[in-house]
Write a structure and sequence with these properties.
single chain, alpha+beta, Uridine Diphospho-n-acetylenolpyruvylglucosamine Reductase, domain 2, Uridine Diphospho-n-acetylenolpyruvylglucosamine Reductase, domain 3, Enolase-like, domain 1, 3 domains, five-stranded antiparallel β-sheet, four-stranded antiparallel β-sheet, 9 helices, 30% helix, 27% strand, globular
Length: 257
């Protein structure tokens, strides 16, 4: 029988997670976890972190954008600070699922779920974002790109929680995120491409790979392992990536002018 926990502090949440280990699932917005529970075996425990204090909010600090992990995607999308300083995030979120989902889905959940079809992970990777992670051994930070080990797999240690995301200032970088869906524009993508051009060009592809994957340009696509799924075959996705990579780079270059 599944146990339910609703901790009142981060410390209490970490204690519960440490005690129950891999048998416990964390629920934030619940848009992904509840679907998993419906179609898969129930976890041994469900840890609801919705009411943990200090995990929501969006603020600028020293030129960077700091986002609490429990901040909803809709709050991020409609934030004046985001629209003015990081418009590529707001544009990306407008195409992510639908408003009902964005009203409850959280930033931390979108990152921790590790589904390669998610839109935010590749974009945050391209922007050089970092996450703050709390665990029983203390606090640590890591680039978003280092969060992922494979399909639905993260490098988070048992009992760790993402508490904050920090996105550096865009400066003069040109940015873009494009995705191709096989059905409606807000559907899961067959491919996604996130680009940030500047002193250091950062290009990440997703949906066609088992995690957000950095590439150096179009030539790098030849050696990229492409995943087939319900959204398209590997050959189909490889062709899509060639097209969307060029479009995303062009859009990012135009954004710099």
């Amino acid at each position: 029988m599944m146990e339910y926990f609703e901790p009142k502090s981060i410390s209490e949440a970490l204690s519960v997670l440490e005690k129950h280990g891999a048998e416990a699932k964390v629920i934030a917005g619940g848009t992904d976890v509840m679907v998993d529970i419906k179609f898969k075996e129930e976890p041994g425990g469900l840890v609801n972190i919705k009411k943990l204090p200090g995990l929501t909010g969006i603020k600028e600090n020293g030129g960077s954008l700091r986002i609490g992990a429990m901040t909803t995607l809709r709050s991020l999308e409609t934030s004046d600070a985001v629209r003015q300083g990081w418009p590529v995030i707001a544009r990306t979120l407008r195409m992510l699922s639908n408003v009902r989902v964005r009203n409850v889905a959280t930033v931390g959940g979108a990152l921790a779920h590790a589904d390669p079809h998610m839109d935010l992970p590749p974009l945050f990777c391209a922007l050089g974002a970092r996450v703050t992670i709390e665990g029983r051994e203390g606090r640590r930070t890591a680039p978003v790109e280092e969060l992922y080990a494979g399909y639905l797999e993260t490098t988070l240690k048992p009992g760790e929680l993402i508490t904050e995301v920090e996105v550096p200032a865009l400066g003069k970088r040109g940015t873009a995120y494009l995705k191709c869906t096989t059905r409606s524009a807000d559907d899961w993508p067959a491919v996604g491409v996130a680009v940030a051009l500047g002193d250091e060009d950062r290009i990440f592809v997703s949906a066609a790979t088992d995690r957000p994957t950095r590439i150096s340009g179009e030539k790098a696509l030849a050696g990229l392992k492409i995943e087939s799924d319900l959204h398209g075959s590997a050959d189909y996705k490889k062709q899509l990536l060639r097209v969307y990579l060029k479009r995303a780079i062009d859009e990012a270059r135009n954004a710099r002018r």
